[in-house]
Write a structure and sequence with these properties.
This protein has 395 residues and is of the alpha/beta class. The protein has 14 helices and 18 strands. The strands form four sheets. An eight-stranded mixed β-sheet has the order 5-6-2-7-1-8-9-12, with helices on both faces. Strand 17, helix 13 and strand 18 form a beta-alpha-beta unit.
């Protein structure tokens, strides 16, 4: 029991460090793929480099713990230094661009990393909370392929991370895109678009484009799923050679290359989508002043639930001009753990809870629902009275 309390305390401390670090990072973009070999890491490095070249302070977080390839593409090796406050110092790549990778923590770069989920989660939390990133405009996160522990940890630790899905044109890759989209829905991460990589190859002699992996598949799946299509990239042998030599930054910084001209369009679309999907905190005080309020209170055994997943029913109140006009008790049909998505379907604009994680709070705000936490153990009707009187919840 004592050991469990210590572990819980360490997790809380780690979460607080992550929360403080994330306050200094404006935008977070995770690059996803359903399978390996689609060029996800290359897209990560190219996106981060192009952002840095535009003057954005950018970091690359390589959380592919088993097969980190970002250090090789950048040509930067060695262990990470530690500052006076015992924070890890990212490797400087160029002006406005820094990077952290698991490889920079290993004395032997060929060492196999054999970790289970909790240890991976802890390492990724350390990469975020105990790294001296400083003020960043963008953090580009290169995750391993698939929908395993690493992307799940990022989704949990970074509430407002946005997903960019990389695919190839052929049908087998497109099936994996659907898995990525399902993953994003499950963890409440907003996918901001799809990139089709290796769309074709340009013949260096005749200039004709050949589709080695079919064509148009990425745009097709974007149309089917309703996700924005961010653009296509051709297979470029010179790019592969530059990555192998650790000179990818120099290559992508050459504006004359056709590949880079195509990539700039993708960067434009990523920036646009990040701005379009920005979530602002919902003002509880503004909600309190409204004439009409619809409130949800997740309950467990007739009291406000300690945390949302423990709730067994939801009390819903319709308040007009400071008075409760209607109320109801609802239970999810057939399942299940109550989620922010369930509560959003009740068309409420406020939720009152005892405790809430940053991820859930962000998701509620994304649904335009204000959040009041730290609710005392009072009957639901009394909580409504306390809120309306200004004694519960405040910005």
């Amino acid at each position: 029991m004592a050991k469990q309390k210590v572990e819980m305390g360490q997790m809380k401390e780690q979460e607080m460090m992550v929360r403080e670090a994330l306050k200094k990072i404006k935008n977070k973009v995770m690059i996803l793929s359903g399978k390996g070999g689609v060029g996800k890491s290359t897209v990560s490095v190219c996106l981060a480099t192009d952002l840095a070249n535009r003057g954005y302070k950018t970091g690359i977080l390589d959380v592919d713990l088993h097969g980190p390839s970002v250090p090789r593409m950048l040509g930067i090796s060695g262990l990470l230094d530690i500052d006076s406050e015992k924070h890890l110092i990212p490797k400087t790549v160029m002006k406005n661009l820094s990077v952290v990778s698991i490889e920079y923590l290993l004395a032997d770069k060929d060492q196999a990393v054999i970790w289970r989920g909790p240890l991976k989660h802890s390492a990724i939390a350390q990469f975020i909370g105990q790294v001296a990133w400083g003020e960043l405009d963008y953090l580009v996160i290169d995750s391993p392929p698939g929908t395993g522990d690493e992307p799940l940890s990022v989704a949990q630790l970074i509430p407002d991370a946005k997903g960019v899905i990389v695919t190839q044109p052929q049908e087998i890759s497109l099936a994996d895109v659907r898995k990525c989209i399902t993953f994003c829905k499950h963890v409440e991460m907003e996918p901001i678009g799809i990139v089709e990589n290796m769309s074709g190859i340009i013949c260096p002699y005749c200039g004709k484009k050949f589709h080695i992996f079919k064509s148009g598949g990425g745009e097709k799946i974007a149309l089917i799923t309703g996700l924005p299509f961010l653009g296509t990239l051709n297979f470029d042998p010179d790019l592969v050679d530059a990555a192998d030599k650790g000179k990818l930054v120099s290559y992508i910084s050459d504006e004359k290359r056709p590949y880079n001209q195509d990539f700039k369009k993708i960067t434009d679309n990523v920036i646009k989508r990040v701005e379009e999907t920005r979530v602002e905190p919902i003002s509880v005080e503004e909600i309190r002043r409204r004439r009409w309020i619809r409130v949800a209170i997740p309950l467990f055994k007739d009291k406000v639930a300690p945390i949302l997943p423990q709730a067994d029913e939801i009390a819903v109140f319709h308040v007009i001009e400071g008075r409760i006009e209607e109320s109801a008790r609802l239970r999810p049909e057939g399942k299940h753990t109550i989620t922010p998505a369930d509560i959003s379907q009740l068309k409420v604009n406020l939720v009152i809870l005892k405790d809430i994680k940053e991820k859930a709070k962000y998701v509620f705000n994304r649904y335009k629902i204000g959040v009041v936490s730290n609710a005392p153990d009072l009957p639901p009707e009394k909580l409504i009275e306390e809120f309306l009187a200004g004694r519960l919840g405040g910005d």
